[in-house]
Amino acid sequence: MQAKHQVQVSQSQQAQVARLLLQANLAYGESNSNGLSHIQRLKARQECRGYLNEALALEPENAGGLGLLGRVEMDDGQLEKAHTLFNASLDHQPDQAQQYCNLGYWALKTERPALAEQYFLQALDCERQSAAAFCGVAHAKRLQGQFDVAYLHYRKLLETGAEWDSVYSGMLTCAQHLEVNKADSALAQDAIALLQRDGLPHQELGRFVSAIVHHQYGLDNPEAQISLEAASEDDLLTLALQKTLMPNPAVEELVTLLRRAIIAEVAQTVELRDELQRLTLAIAQYADRTGYGLAAEDDEERLVSAINDSIQAQFALGEEQDGLIGSLMISAMYGALFHQQFAVQLGQWNLVDWPLSLQPVLAASYYDRAKEEAIKQNFDEKAEELCLDKTDVPQAWPSWSRLAYRTESSLKTLMATELGLETDYLPATLRLMVCGAQSGQRAMELASYLDDVEVIAVDESLANIAKATRMANEMGMDNIVFWPWSIAQRFVADGHQVHWIEVGRLPSPAMATLSLAALVNQATGSGAVVHMHTVIAEQTSGDKQIRKLVSEHQLQPTRQTLRQLRRMVLANRNDAAWQDLTADADFYSLGGCRDRWFRPQDTAQLKELMAMASNEVEWKLVKARDVDGHSLATGPVQKQIQAEALGSEVQSLMGQNLSVYFVKRR
């Protein structure tokens, strides 16, 4: 009787353990659900941990429970505990594909992609059809720089139905590193799939897409025939125009030729065919993204001027909205509707009053600009724009539409796991400052994916501040502000401090009264982190030559001047002196050209900042990464920093493209 009773108790315990593990798995699934807030996900993770603790109290050697607890510990940043639990699970139940996968992701977290690949392959040995393990191999290959192999793995996953955010994000990262040497219909279909996927930073696909388009249209062949009809039916070209900026001189020429062909047909037939409207709208979006940098011939300018006069007359005669649409499409390919004489009359309609297909163009060309102008009025720096012609007012750069895909976390967790810092003394909400935030993509990613921060993003371009503020408002973000340097300096002078400073684009020499090093020193207290980069972009031989021309001839950053400078570069694009410049995405927007030629980054600011951080009494280098994101030994890097501070150019870090993290000691 006693033996029978013990068996019944054991079976009862097993049933209870099974129920608890089921509840734990459901809670863990919730903790990784994109549909929940980070706070809700943390709560679900705590619930999962509670169920697991109960289950393991009843059955301490339950392999599934140990493995899942390891995942919870890994998500909480407890990597050593996670590693011990995964191995304990395998000790009690060998050959679990799930635990080898877990070890693979643990190895990725600890920056050991080659070891991760071995674990994922072991998982596949246990379970040949494991999509999670196959995806892990793709991630490991990508992090080892084998982008072509990883890309094919991601493609295979999509073909088998594993349409996960991490798969699309990984594929997009790999695409940026691929060399496209010929027309390839499979790559074109991949590019279409990536451009159609919501939630991806499509702006980062520009180089990949432009290479495909380049070969698809045979743009290396001067005799290539460009068909307006074929282009108007080309889904890849249309999506690329709508969502990216293509850094390729030949592709830019293709776009200007297509635009010219459209307006030539309209001049002849006095109507815009339905078949051409989608391409026309896409070119209008693209032209806006370039800051209207696309070259136009005199006859095109005259035709557009006549069309704008006609729109003005139509408004005067009380024309219905439908009668304006075709003319507005043509006008928007050449200039912002917000800058036209009839702009005030457009304001009688809301954006949603227009046809759906027209709304993205009207938003970019008119409504968004109106909102940004209203934001600019809040800053004293607006006075500098009042004397400029409308078309010469600077445009925000870089142009982006989507934040990059990231897993939500907290800054305190990153400080503890990535930098090995003590975080118990920190407040619940940390203040993070991004210096040189430009148009705000990186700053908004930090504000969006870190649940314990308020972000102050600082930039010297009022256009960037206005655009970023508008986009943050539209995303409903309430933990970020965008300020000019003048307000940031007052904020710090009033005694406010921050816990983390990230240095993006450096101030230009025009910011003569600003010392970035002094601001950083004043804004940080003991334990604060400063993250900066040791390379300064925009230093090609072409840039230096143009900046010399600007200085010698006292050129002003008007649209006409910027277009003329770009035209000069494009006319000589086969000359080696200009090729690095024409390979840079910034060159394909007037906003990017204006920044690099008329507001270049001040190298003296970075030197001063590095010299300050080289003081080992005040600062400690806690992490250094190379351009591929791999961690480096901090000792040699620290020696280089100190040698440079003492005037040794031989060991200069400047230009080595490292990402370095310093912590203030006191």
What is the gist of this entry?
The chain has 666 residues and is α/β, with parallel strands linked by helices. 56% of the residues lie in helices and 7% in strands. The protein has 30 helices and seven strands.
What quaternary form is this?
single chain
Q: Cα distance, first to last residue?
A: 71 Å
Low-confidence stretches: 1-9
Give the DSSP E fraction (strand runs of 2 or more residues).
Answer: 5-15%
Structural class: alpha/beta
Largest sheet: 7 strands, mixed
Can you offer a commentary on this structure?
This protein has 666 residues and is an alpha/beta fold. It has 30 helices and seven strands. A seven-stranded mixed beta sheet has the order 3-2-1-4-5-7-6. Helix 5 (97-109) packs parallel to helix 7. It is globular and about 90 Å long. The protein starts with a helix and ends with a strand. 39% of the residues are buried. The model is unreliable at 1-9 (pLDDT under 50). InterPro entries: SAM-dependent_MTases_sf, TPR-like_helical_dom_sf, TPR_rpt.
